[in-house]
Amino acid sequence: MNFQKLFQKFVNRETMTYLVVGVLTTAVDYLVFWLVNEALKRTGMGVAATATWAQAVSWSAAVVFAYFGNRIVVFRSKNTGFRNILGEFGGFVAARAVSGAVVLILQWLLIDKLGMNEYLAKIAGSVFNIVFNYFAGKFLIFKSRETSGGK
């Protein structure tokens, strides 16, 4: 496979819109993380505890934002009906829960055990999230759920 074909395979509308939605989702995540983290620091909690709580809250806000962005803009889901959409949303949340759990564990290890700055640890977790969540969305979540022998 030559470079042009490889480029066309990986650089297309879907991957570009995924990056845009991802940047916006990351902005929501980081903004909420920063607001909650800074507010909790004022309570006297330790850095690892404030970062963990801030991560949980920011993750929740980002997941809701990302679901709608991925459903509507990136993967253009055609799923209709309450059960199909509920299944899609449930799968999305489950995949994000897996990646979110990995980020929480990474943050604990990097901040509490290795003494890394909480914002650098946050960036490290984002790298994992980008790759894992794209493939989960593309191959597991936003697939047609038609019952008439579709995919």
With helices defined by DSSP (H or I, 4 residues minimum), what is the helix count?
A: 5
Beta-strand percent range: under 5%
Mean pLDDT: 89
Largest sheet: none
Shape category:
globular
Supply the helix-strand structural class. Answer: mainly alpha
Portion of residues within helices: over 70%
Write down the secondary-structure element order.
HHHHH
Q: Report the uncertain regions.
A: 146-151
CA distance, first residue to last residue? 27 Å
Radius of gyration, in angstroms, nearest whole number: 18 Å
Count all strands and give the number: 0
Walk me through the structure.
The protein has 151 residues and is mainly α. It has helices at 3-10, 13-41, 47-74, 82-113, 118-141. The protein is globular, with a radius of gyration of 18 Å. The relative contact order is 0.12. The model is unreliable at 146-151 (pLDDT under 50).
Give a summary of the structure in a few sentences:
This protein is mainly α and 151 residues long. The protein is 80% helix and 0% strand.
List keywords for this structure.
single chain; 151 residues; mainly alpha; 5 helices
Please describe the topology of this protein.
Layout: H1 3-10, H2 13-41, H3 47-74, H4 82-113, H5 118-141
Helix pairs in contact: 2-3, 3-4, 4-5
